[in-house]
Amino acid sequence: MDGSNELSFNCPLCRHLAAQLYHRDKFRSYYQCANCALVFVPPEFHLSPDEERAYYDLHENSLQDEGYRRFLGRCVTPLLNELRPGSEGLDFGCGPAPLLAQMLTEAGHRVELYDTYFAPNAGAMRREYDFIVSTEVIEHLSAPREELQHLWGILRPGGMMALMTKLVLSPERFTNWHYIRDPTHICFFSQQTFRWLAGQLQAELQFADSDVILLRKK
């Protein structure tokens, strides 16, 4: 792409100034950071908090939904393989039906809940944890740099952060990707982005599944 598509605004993850147009549809524009490769939606297209909450209220996840349990299992299973018995963790962005926390509790771990809208427990964000898990959350963050730095700061040495988010594969696939149809999805990560992030955090990185990322704090 030529320089005419380059904008001078900060990447929400790495604060780099240069970003190029990656894709545009009839609803939004998407830019890619030239440094960390994050694809992001400019703030002018972000929903208001009330609009965002209303959209989340349309979701129908349930603690009794076996399909949802199988979906979350792709993150829970590799995480459990890395945890010591009786570990203490945080489910960041647990939503209205914290099935993920329930699955980890069933496996013998203790889990605190935090969600901006559904479990705004500020105290949970001031404690330290052996693990932090966040499924289908980081693509919603308007300030991923600050949020991830804070979470990393409350993770104990040797602790594990497990993230679940669909990954950008190519511009061609991005064009018809169902993931960008959700108006609350505003940050799109790739393997390249997570390698950059792991370098910044000095973390051990593992891609446990196509959309499951594990980061261990050294």
TrEMBL record:
Enzyme Commission code: 2.1.1.-
Pfam families, A to Z: Methyltransf_23
Entry's InterPro entries?
Answer: SAM-dependent_MTases_sf
Q: Name one GO molecular function term.
A: methyltransferase activity
Q: What class of enzyme is it?
A: transferase
**GO annotation terms (biological process):** methylation
Q: Is this entry keyworded Kinase?
A: no
Write out the entry's keywords from A to Z.
Methyltransferase, Transferase
Transmembrane regions listed in the UniProt entry = none
Keyword Transmembrane (UniProt):
no
Q: Know the name of this protein?
A: Class I SAM-dependent methyltransferase
Origin organism of this chain? Microbulbifer taiwanensis
